[in-house]
Amino acid sequence: MKTSAFFLSLAALGLLAGCTTSQVTWSKVGVTQEQGRKDLDQCAAEAGLMTREAEGKLETGALLGRAEKDAAFERCMTGKGYRRG
C-alpha cells in the first residue's frame, strides 16, 4: 500500500542511546510503511555499527559518541531520500 507521504517518528537520540529525549520525524513521498520501517531499521543498525579510525585504532559503534551515531543515522536517512522535519 503506497501512501502519498510516509512519516517515520522516533525518539531521535533514544533510538541510538537507549533513552527518550526529543522527537524527530522523517518523511519520504511515495514510500510504503514497510519500506520506511526497513530503511529506519537499517540506518539505525548502520549508525550503531559505524566505525572510525582514531589515533591509529579502529573503534566500533560501541565506542563512538552519541553525537557521531546521530550524525551517521541522519546521513543514512537523507541518503535514502528522507527529509527531516
How are the elements arranged and paired?
Layout (H helix, E strand, L loop, with lengths): L4 E7 H6 L5 E7 L3 H17 L2 E3 L2 E3 L6 H14 L3 E2 L1
Helix pairs in contact: 2-3
Notes on the protein architecture:
This protein has 85 residues and is of the alpha+beta class. It has one domain. Helices cover 44% and strands 26% of the residues. The protein contains three helices and five strands. The strands form two sheets. A three-stranded antiparallel β-sheet has the order 1-2-5. Strand 3 (52-54) and strand 4 form a beta hairpin. The longest helix has 17 residues, at 33-49. The protein is elongated, with a radius of gyration of 14 Å.
Class by SSE composition:
alpha+beta
Element-level helix/strand string: EHEHEEHE
Helix share, percent: 40-55%
What is the residue-mean pLDDT, rounded to a whole number? 75
Shape: elongated
Percent strand: 25-35%
Unreliable spans:
10-20
Count of the domains: 1
Strands ordered across the widest β-sheet: 1-2-5
Taking all Cα atoms into account, the compactness measure Rg is 14 Å
Major beta sheet summary = 3 strands, antiparallel
Distance between the termini: 23 Å
Question: Which key phrases capture this entry?
Answer:
85 residues, alpha+beta, three-stranded antiparallel sheet, elongated
Summary of the model, kept short:
This protein is α+β, with helices and mostly antiparallel strands. Helix content is 44%, strand content 26%. The protein contains 3 helices and 5 strands; from the N terminus they run βαβαββαβ.
